[in-house]
């Protein structure tokens, strides 16, 4: 969701964004079909399901191409937000609102900032098709494929990812 947040911020406050980096970004797919089922008690049960560590472990493993990186420490770090007060209520409200529903192509095409699109070549969370769609939609953009990488380039290939970002900022 970080890429969708960055896209939304860039569209809302373009005057404060010099360059944009998107890494395996959400924002092109429509909101969750589960939103119509977000009413008590199903809403709370859904958040309980999503916060279950076995479920989170399975999702975490899908995020990595290199399964050895899906360690218990990575799982715990990825679940830190679950400890925040009112997390369940926030997720319910976000899902009911439609979350980051798909940005329209016309909206994304208004991004004038240079944009670096980093994408794991083996992303099984979002797939790889959206990288090209972002590239087509954002006029001043470049796609760089991170080899041997799933949905989490900053964790799976941190040196390569950081180097591309450093090269981009110059």
The CATH superfamily of the largest domain bears the name Alpha/Beta hydrolase fold, catalytic domain
Helix proportion: 40-55%
Number of helices: 9
- Number of folding domains? 2
Overall pLDDT level: 89
List the quaternary state of the chains. Answer: single chain
Please tally the β strands and state the result. Answer: 3
The radius of gyration computed from the alpha-carbon positions, rounded to a whole number of angstroms, is: 17 Å
Q: Report, as a whole number of angstroms, the end-to-end distance.
A: 26 Å
The strand line-up of the biggest sheet is: 1-2-3
Q: What best-fitting shape do the alpha-carbon axes yield?
A: globular
Strand % is 5-15%
Derived structural class: mainly alpha
List segments where confidence is low: pLDDT < 50 over at least 5 consecutive residues. none
What does this structure look like?
The model has no long low-confidence stretch (mean pLDDT 89). The chain folds into 2 domains: 1-30 and 103-170, 3-Layer(aba) Sandwich (Rossmann fold); 32-99, no CATH class. The chain is mainly alpha-helical and 170 residues long. It is built from 9 helices and 3 strands. A 3-stranded parallel β-sheet has the order 1-2-3, with helices on both faces. The longest helix is centred in the last third of the chain and has 12 residues, at 158-169.
